[in-house]
Every structure is written in C-alpha cells, then in structure tokens.
UniProtKB/TrEMBL annotation:
InterPro entries: Sel1-like, Sel1_AlgK, TPR-like_helical_dom_sf. Pfam families: Sel1. Gene3D superfamilies: Tetratricopeptide repeat domain. Signal peptide: none annotated. This is Sel1 repeat family protein.
Length: 529
C-alpha cells in the first residue's frame, strides 16, 4: 500500500490550532472553568480536532450548565430535544431551556416558546408560548418575531390582530427570515392587516424563494404558470416547481407531474409524470394518489393497483377518488362488485359537492339501482348537480318536473331546466325545447324556434331531431321548403334507425327532380366518405 499523501500546510496548521485549543480548554475545564467546559463540549459535539462524541459533549455541557452558564444550558436542551447522545426527552429539554431563558438567552426563549406551543415536555399553553416568543422577539430573534406574528395572525394566546401580525412579520422579514417573508407575502396577497398589494406579495415571495424556502418557491411557480402578477412563463414555473419538489414539497411534485402529464411547456412524458406523482403520493398527497389510480385504471388497466391508490386518497376525503372507487365497486373491477359499497362512496363524494357523484346518485334513485326507488331523492340529487351548471343534471331535473307521476310536476320549471341545459349545448334538452315550440306546450307555438332547437340538436347527432328537421324542411314549417335539406336530414335519421324515417325519405325522394336527387346523394356519399 502506498504511503498516505502528506497533509497540506493549511490542514496541518488547522489541526495544530485545534489541538492547542483542546489542550488549553481541557486544562481549564478540569479546573472548573464553565466557559472552558462549554467550549470543550462544543468541540466534542462538532468533532473539531478530536473524535466526535455526543456522550462527552453532554458531560462537559452538563458541568457548565450546572454552574449556570446559559449557553451550555441551551445546548443541553437542544441535545435532549433532538435525542443526541441521550434518549429524546422533552421534559429535560424544557428544564434546560427554562434555565437559560430566565437568564435572557434569546434562542432558549424561542425554543421554550415552541415547546409550550406544541405541548411537548410541559402542558400546552398559548399564553406562555406568547410570553417567551415576545421576550426573544424583543431581542431581535427573527424566528420568534415570525412566530409572534403567526400567533397574532391566528389569535392564539392573544386577540387576533392582523396589524400586529404584519408588524412582527416585517421585523423578521427585514432580517432575511424566509418564513416571515413568505407570511408577509401572503398578507400582501389577501390584504389582511395591510393594503392589498400583489406586486409587494410577489416581491416578498421571491425573497423567500431565493433563500430556498419551498412554499415560497411553489407560490412563485404558480404565479409564473398562471401569469398572476408575474408574466406567464412556463420555463420559470417549471424551474421553481422543480426547486421546491427536490426539497420534498409535495404540491410542487404533484404540479410537476401534471405538467409532464399534459405536456405544458415541456414534451409530454408520462414516465416523468408518474415519477413525480409517486413522490407526492408517498407523502400523502391525495390528488397525486388519485392520479396514480387513474393511470393504473385507464393506462395499465390494473384495477387492483388502481383501487389501492383511490382508497388512499378517498380515505383522506378526496371526492374524485371516492367517486372512482364507487365506480370500481359498481363494475366489480379490482374487487367483487358491490352495489352498496358503490353507493356508499358515491354518497361520500356527493356530500362534498362532486357533481358526477350527485348526478349518478340521482340516476340510481330514479331507477332503483342499488337503492329503493325514490323520485324525490332523485330530484334532490339532480337539483344539487344542476346548481353547479351540470347540463345532464339540469336536463334530468326537467324530465322529472315534466312527469305527471313525479315528485313535483311543474311544466314551467321543466322548461326552465331544459333552457339552462340547452344553453350549454345539451342535445336532449335542445330537442325537448324543439318539441315544446313545435307543439305549443307551455310556450307559444313557434315553428321557427322549433326549427332552431331541432337544428342545434340534429347537428350533434340527435336522431329524432334529424327526423323532425327533415319533416319540417319537407313541409316548409319553420323555414323555406327545401327537399334537398329534408332528404339529407331524413337520411341521417334512417341511418340511426328512427322509426318511420325510411318511409318519409321515400316520400321526399318521390317529390324531387332526378338531378336534385342525384346531387344530394353525391353530397351524402362525400360526407360518408
């Protein structure tokens, strides 16, 4: 084995310096000098010039602390709190922090405040937390100033006061404390305790983000992604999401997954998307768990894995996953079919406002699928989904109001529901309105309006609307008589299998000139081709 390379002159000098310090401190410490004992403990704790030893650090810190040296008392508290060289012991940590805090040691006052706030090692007490944070904050401790701001913000241990919260956040933020910069940014965003100023909000977020504070990096990324105050910039958004994601920020990991999934600002990359979803899901991010479920269900078609991820998200109350889990139970995918379990999960999602779950519950109560038939409950669930502008629910609400045997017959209300759905392009509602104007039901008979509604539905492939439009064109109702248009619409109705359409098509063809008939058949062939 070749001999070890000689150490550099600088390294030798440093080692000699540490050795001299160690010998000097050891001699003084053994004579009972508290500062030397603390210094020796510090060297053992950090392994400076000697082999690191938490046990010996505790020994020397303990001797200095027993003599009332606040630095040593604080360091003992930290070691007890973190379980370094000793079993984690919050009671002992609180004891030593108290000793140092009462001597005015700001860092100990701050840590003692945290223990009171969390109820670790002593009874939770917001008032005592407030007291010790205040003492440390008044000495300029930025962490305590930030926490004091948070207590005023949330009204813990003190009446809620947004102006005071801003005051303390600003003191800490101006010292460069990233969390306070982030909190100050949030307050400028929502105008609590300060005049709303979203430019200032972005500026403080950037200061915190540039120090590596992940929540601020996430906030900055959102602004770049959405063009919120900052110019829309996908590359900047991805860069900031990545910085936060690499620190383990779950929402940033999830958003990066979405970006790769949808190819927003980067080439679509499903594997990269999955990798980020997995990281976020591993931290309990419900939306990431849901998206992994979707991948396994619709991509890999692994229903067993899909239900595992859906269940994780559903257990956290994520409504989209609760709905998907209900679908798997209904269809028996990844588990035995179970109508009752399906209904259970649909209801969980519906109670949180999931519109598809509300609509599906309406269908099940209307038809008695998995539950006793109950048209009143069906109408209620349709109503809830309809209030979220879900067009299929607005249509079905209209259908139930149209039924004489329904829970609340009301043809005028039915017409209003159809109008709301039709305005969103719902073809069944458009056809229903066409019929109403065609027959003069609840509205003045108006063939032109009927034509317009039938045409909207027909263009979306509604077969009966195509049939009725063809008949109107053949008779000149609602517009000029146009046998060629009639032939086209009736041909579509025949292809869809509408009863009577073939007879009407023959009758229309018999009224047409051969040249017109040949031309329209060529048009239909071109459309079909």
């Amino acid at each position: 084995m070749p001999p070890a390379a000689p150490r550099s002159t600088a390294a030798q000098s440093t080692a000699a310096h540490y050795t001299a310090d160690y010998l000097r401190l050891k001699g003084q410490a053994e004579k009972g000098n508290a500062h030397a004992q603390h210094g020796l403990g510090f060297m053992y704790f950090n392994g400076q010039g000697i082999e690191q030893s938490y046990a010996l650090a505790l020994h020397w810190y303990g001797l200095a602390a027993a003599q009332g040296l606040e630095h040593a008392q604080y360091n003992l508290g930290v070691m007890c709190q973190k379980g370094q060289g000793v079993a984690q012991d919050f009671v002992q940590a609180a004891h030593w922090y108290q000793q140092a805090a009462e001597q005015g040691y700001a860092a100990a006052q701050y840590n003692l405040g945290w223990l009171y706030a969390k109820g670790q090692g002593l009874a939770q007490d917001s008032g005592q937390a407030m007291l010790w944070f205040s003492r440390a904050a008044e000495q300029g401790d930025a962490g305590a100033q930030n926490n004091l701001g948070m207590m005023y913000d949330n009204g813990k241990g003190v009446p809620q006061d947004f102006v005071q919260a801003i005051n303390w956040y600003r003191k800490a933020a101006e010292q460069g404390y990233a969390r306070a910069q982030f909190n100050l940014g949030l307050r400028y965003d929502n105008g609590q305790g300060v005049r709303q100023d979203r430019q200032q909000a972005a500026a403080w977020m950037r200061k915190a983000a540039e120090q590596g504070y992940a929540p601020a990096q996430f906030n900055l990324a959102l602004r770049y992604e959405n063009g919120d105050v900052l110019p829309q910039d996908s590359r900047q958004a991805i860069s900031w999401y990545r910085r936060a994601a690499e620190q383990g920020h779950a929402s940033s990991q999830f958003n990066l997954g979405l970006i790769y999934d949808n190819g927003q600002g980067v080439p679509c990359d499903k594997q990269a998307a999955l990798a980020w979803y997995v990281k976020a899901a591993g931290q309990g991010h419900a939306a990431a768990q849901h998206n992994l479920g979707l991948h396994h269900e619709h991509g890999a078609q692994d229903y067993t894995r899909a239900q595992v991820f859906y269940r994780q998200a559903a257990g956290q109350g994520f409504p989209a996953a609760q709905y998907q889990l209900g679908l798997l139970y209904e269809h028996g995918q990844g588990m035995p079919a179970d109508a009752q379990e399906a209904i259970f999960w649909y209801r969980k999602a519906a109670d949180q406002g999931h519109v598809r779950a509300q609509f599906d519950l309406g269908l099940r109560y209307e038809h008695g699928q998995g539950v006793p038939q109950d048209l009143a409950l069906a109408l209620e669930w349709y109503r809830r989904a309809a209030e979220q502008d879900y067009a299929p629910a607005q249509y079905m609400q209209g259908v139930l109001h149209d039924r004489d045997d329904g829970p609340a017959p009301d043809s005028q209300q039915a017409c209003a529901c159809y109008c709301r759905a039709a305005a969103q392009g719902h073809s069944l509602a458009q056809f229903a309105l066409g019929l109403r104007h065609d027959n003069g039901q609840d509205v003045p008979q108006d063939y032109a309006a009927a034509w317009d509604w039938y045409a909207l539905a027909a263009r979306q492939g509604h077969a009966r609307a195509q049939m009725n439009l063809g008949l109107m064109a053949a008779s000149g109702q609602g517009g000029p008589l146009d046998l060629q248009q009639a032939y086209i619409w009736l041909s579509m109705a025949v292809a869809a299998g509408v009863a009577g359409a073939e007879k009407s098509l023959r009758q229309t063809a018999a009224r047409m000139r051969e040249t017109d008939l040949a031309r329209v058949r060529e048009q239909l062939a071109a459309i079909a081709g």
